Amino acid sequence: MSRLYSLRGLALALGVAGLANSCSVPYSDLIAPAAARGDMFNSYVAIGNSITAGYQSGGIIDSTQKRSYAFLLAQSMGTRFAYPSLAGRGCAPLITSFLTQARPAGTSALTCDLRSAATATDIMNNLGVPGAWSYDPNVNSSATSNALTTLFLGGKSQVQRAREAKPTFASIWIGNNDVLGPASTGCTTANAACPVTLGNITPSATFLTTYDAIIDSLKLTSPDLKGVLIGVVNVINAPLYFPVDSLTGAVKTAFDAIACGAGTASTTCAIGLPSAVDLDASCAAGSGALINAMLAFQIRTNAHPAFIVCTPGGAGTFGPLPAPVGDILVLTSAEQNTITTAVATYNTYLSTKATTLGWAYYDPNTQLATLKSAGTVVRRVPNFGSATAPFGTGLSLDGVHPNAAVHLIIANDIVTAINAKYATTLPVVF
Amino acid sequence: MKRYHQLFLAVCATLVLAPSAARAQAFGLNEIGSCAFSRGFATTSAPCNDASAIFWNPAATAGMKGNSILVGGAAIAVKAKFTRDSAMGAHEADIPMALVPHIFVNHAMGDRMSVGLGVYVPYGLTSQWKTDFPGRFLAQKAAIASIYVQPNVSMSFKGGKWKVGGGPVLGHSSVELIQGADLADQIARVDSLTTPTVRTVIRFSQLGIARRTEFARATLEGSTTSFGLNVGVLGKLSEHWTMGARYLSSLMMEYKDADAKFEQQETGIKFAANNPLGYPAGTLFDTLVAARGRYCTASGDVMPVAPGATPGSAQTCTAAGLLGKQTVTTRIPHPDQFQVGFAYTGFSNWLIAVDYEWTGWKKFTNLPVDFSRDSVALVCQAAIAGTVTPCDYDVLDRDLFEDYNNTSAIRIGAEHTLKNGWLIRGGFSGVAAAAPDETVTPLLPEQDRTYWSIGTAFPIIKDKVTLDAAYGFVLGSGRRGRIDERLSRAVLGSALNSGIYDLSANVLSLSLKANF
To answer: What CATH class is the domain B2-515?
Structure first.
């Protein structure tokens, strides 16, 4: 009895000790945070260009980086999303007035406050780099690399940085610059003013090859990768381009005020009508030409004479004009068709590729066309008299990049596409 | 008799339940003698019947018979893992099995006095991670081994009821730290601002270089010695009750002029066109003279070749580089320990002991790492605009905040004597972490631990030679920790900690005891 009792006592003492110890252990806070919407979203990477990066109004700053559709998508997924946060005034600071193209006091388009050291991290989720073409994500350097390429990727490629994140989900929105770059000049002939021409639109075969390489590289280390492919925007629908037919009345007056108004450096504004831009007969109704709104500022800075000619080659009512007048910043119907055809070919491939991969696919052109048709969020014709919303309430001051409102719409459209494809329940973001 | 049983259980329960914040451990090592280990280290009031008492209670050797020697060691296999938040992966540690030796000898000088010598390791640690571990910039390997050598004298009084003992301690400690150096933290450029003499530092992280870009690996090795003492008292309170206490003083280990070597690591960084540093497109960072020249020890030396690069025509160092071979100084306090306990022998053939142990870890406030080449002689921008103040950038020096707390531990052990002369033992020790939430790092992912141990002693030659064997399992509770440096004490663990450290260990201890 004595021995039995003593063993019981010993067991009890040790048992109490173990119980006391186990009760003091704070196990409840020892669960590593994971994606709220499922394992598929544990590690999300976004490959892309300026829209993915959060570029707006000719610049990029931390607050616009946090308004990118990719950032919003990560919020919906409830997953980590590190982006290359820019310090201070950004790189470059945003244009604050469309009318003057001014940026915050003391800054210019060359101002760059570099990356925020405090938020530097090893694993990056937003890998979009402004200016990136379809061939950029797989290379460290290319002809289109810029200062932001290094600032965002640190000497590696988008795909290299993406692979470091061991992604489970990827969004890829690349190719816009493959047509935007050429379209932004509208040139058919290369010269000093037109380093990029429509001939530089990435051939569809090249686009397909480079795009395949991006996906192959990602899946090499993440074979179970899921994702969404996002179609290339038909950039001729961006409000930066407007029909020359609309350059009449109040629109023309406001356009002239920028190009030839007070403070203009143009030496040709007064040749035709005093302080106004002259439209060549080639731009008559029915020409179908689209004008790049930035032409007003080219005239203002005397980089372009105050004539708008809609015939490539520069010949018009006013006689021969020096190249690239008639070519630069003007998209003829034929040129528009070239761009539209290229975009359609890209997007047919992307849709098929997404199906092959079992990924979601989202074509933003439908939504953007709807918004433009309504005319408020995305204007059909710029309001050249507005300093803060010339292209609509959803477009930033550069006329190409969406602002927070359209990023939100796009993000929720992508959420819908992902939910439809994967039967997930990602919530809309606000 | 029954009253004593109830009293003993009450004491046990009180001691275990009361200090839920009981603390101890850090890089302390208690695996000193297999008997003590198997009894959960509860040996102050009832030291094992061997010369390991020189450590556990220096008084207890008084009254031992003849000569006694104890030789052994513990094999400690630690498993550790860090699981990063946000599903960024788990990283297993790569800790080699540690063998921790101990040797004690004691010589009885009559019935009342003994002299002896103990060599043991009360503080030690090896924390080692794989080379791709994201926390390697704090420590890829951290090892400390501190061997104490203690001569001991003990005496008994009042017919053997009370004993005192103690002796000086000579501690020899060696440290090794291997850590990565992060390019993101390094100075890339110093720009002028308003005047040529007022400058601002631009670090590589501001130019887009990812954090945890290992461009160099540092290996620091050094050793030192220090002195202290270990004393104890042991008393027989009644027929079945004994009490004991011991105190081991703190030793401050100053590692001066330790060796520091830096080895260039391949970053793979290839600069894009139009990069802010102005390098031609495709320039490899690793091959830049500006990068390789940092590893020059002296002017005139052959410049190191970039890792993975083919040696071309030899280039010569024009100056000593920041990362050339140099020395480093650091300091690690080894805290004092106080342990008190009670033992009860009222159960037939049973010995049961409970100890309380306090360790003065609060002395471990910081870990300075001072390199002999630690600064870039530049002028940096002062806090007040327009004022020019000379300063250095301390690009290598570190002062790691530790801010440990004093700790307590509860130890419970039992020993049962079988009829054939064999002994079976069991023990439990519950300890909590010395490190605060802000100091759970790869160097030492401190966390609450429980020790469960069992053991036996069986005579090989009766009354002459005995083999003690013990096995123990150490289980950590898991704890959130960090892999990044804490640059300010204002930054709390909740902001710094980015994952969970898990820790467990298996320990096998063997000791051979001989009496002659």
So the answer is: mainly beta
